[in-house]
Every structure is written in structure tokens, then in C-alpha cells.
Amino acid sequence: MLWILLGIAAAASWSFAAFIDNYLTDVIFRDKMPQAVKLASGPVYILISIIVFLATGAIMPEAWQAGLLILSGFISAIGTLAYYQALKNEEATGAAIFYQLQPIMFLAIDFFLFNESITFKQIIGFLVVLSAPIIVIFSRKHKESRKLELTAALLLVLYVFIATISAEISTRTSVGMNFITVICFYLFGRGITDCLFNLMPSYRKRHKYAIKKYGLKYRFMVAFDILLCSAADFAYRYSLIIGIAALSSAITNAAELILTFLFGIILSIIWPKFGREKLHRHLIIAHVVAVVLCVVGIIIIQ
Fold first, then answer.
1. 248 with 58: CB under 8 angstroms?
2. Is the CB of residue 100 less than 8 Å from the CB of residue 219?
3. CB 295 within 8 A of CB 47
4. Inter-residue contact 85 to 159 (CB < 8 Å)
């Protein structure tokens, strides 16, 4: 039961963090290289990993385990490049629909790499889940909007695929390990990778612009976003270890989809600049149908 509660807690944290990411992309960076936010997030991830590791007295892993966990963080950090690029043309609720592909990718990876079976029933569930993002794309009335939506969709699929590989690596490496050690080395890998983007002059320029124009507001939002995502990573990856990976992923993603949709409506009404969702009737209906299809598809898969 604990792994289910952890999955839902992770979903709630990621759902709210998605709107912070949207705000950073649309308002702080004005849709120009929002990936530059990684220059601010890198040191925070490293600091969190070191503080938690020292405070809890976590055990040092073997060299190969440490390397794989850092690699998991590296892969995850690289995947967020596609994520931020996609947010330029996609709202938080639309992006959340594509996260439902992760349970499918988990099962596919397990099938091709670890010889785990896939049933005909699960294939039907796959098709039901895949229909959800297609509905969202074609809910756009203008062809240009559909093209932008398709571009965002491909980027989000890439992001989810990379995130799934990262989760698979850390989950299979962490067997028999202290979980605090696992999450600390994973976050350390993310932080180191994000810091490497300081080598890109264009990112440094956008980062300096954000600091100069928004100062403390920018730093606070990035720090809060990272704390939410780190807490979500902790809860989610622990749920993967103590539960069934594919099922835990399915429950977490379904909860995230529903919560993001609810947060999107509420925030867009009471705080439009933060919620920033398009509350047109046909779009809301399309998202409701997509949510239902994702939940039904995940139930069929499991």
C-alpha cells in the first residue's frame, strides 16, 4: 500500500511543478531557450544530494553501482532538454497526457531486453492509451496549431522514453541497495550534467538575462521547482523499488494526469498568468476524453 501512496504523492508534486515549468518557459524565458534554467538547477541538485547523503549517513555504493546511478541522472537531465523545448508549444495538462506512455515503454523495454511477456490484453491497453494524445493533437482547430502540437508531441515522447531508460537503470541497479544512496547519486548525476551546460554561451546568456530581470523571483521559483521534483523523484523511484515497476508507473502517471488537469483548471481561473491553460470548451472536452482513455487503457494493461 505504501508504494501506491508514494506514487500519488509523487504525482501531486510533479503536477504542481509542471505549472512552474510552464511559467518559467513562457514568462521568465519568453519561449527562448528555456533549457537555460538548468544552469540554476544544477548546483541545487548537487547541494541536495550532498546534504541528504551526509545527513542520513548513507552508505557508499560500489564503483560500478555509483557509475550507473550517476548515468541514470545524466540521462534524465539530457531528457529534460526535449521537455523544455516541448513546453514552448504545449500546456502542462497536454504534456501530462504524454507521460502515460511511460508504463507502455516500461513493458516494452522489459519485453525486448529482459524477456518479460506481453499479453494481447496489454496490447489493446497500449492502443487505448496511444489514442489519448492523438485526440489532443486533433482537438486543435487550426492546422498550424496541429503542427506545433505534433512537434511538441514528438519531443514529449522522446522525453518520456529517455526518462523511462533512466528509471530502468536506477531501478535495476538499486536492488539490495540503501535507497537514500540511490536517490543521492541519481540527483548528483542530474546536477553535474546540468552544470555542464555552463559550457554553452547561449545558455549562459539566457540565464544571466533571467537573473538580471527577475532576480530573487527566478531563483526562488527554480529552487522550489527542484525541491518538488526531487521529492517526487524520491517517492516515485522508491515506489518502483518496493512495488511492481510497471504498475507503480501506471498509477503514478494516471494520478498525475488527473491532478494536472484539475490544477490546470483551478489555477487558470484564480491565477491566469500561472495556470495559463486554454479553457476553450472543445479543448476541455478533448482533455477529459483523453484522461478517461488513459485511465481505462492503464487499467486494461494491468
1. no
2. no
3. no
4. no
